[in-house]
Amino acid sequence: MPLITWNDNLNMGVKALDDDHKRMVGIVNELHDGIMLGRARDVLSRVLDELVAHTENHFAQEEQLFAQTGYRGRTAHKKEHRKLTKSVKELQDLYKSGAPGSLSLETMNFLETWAVTHIQEDQKCGPHLNAKGIQ
Ligand SMILES: [Fe+2]
Ligand SMILES: [Fe+2]
Question: Cα(119) to centroid of ligand 1, in Å?
Answer without folding.
Answer: 5
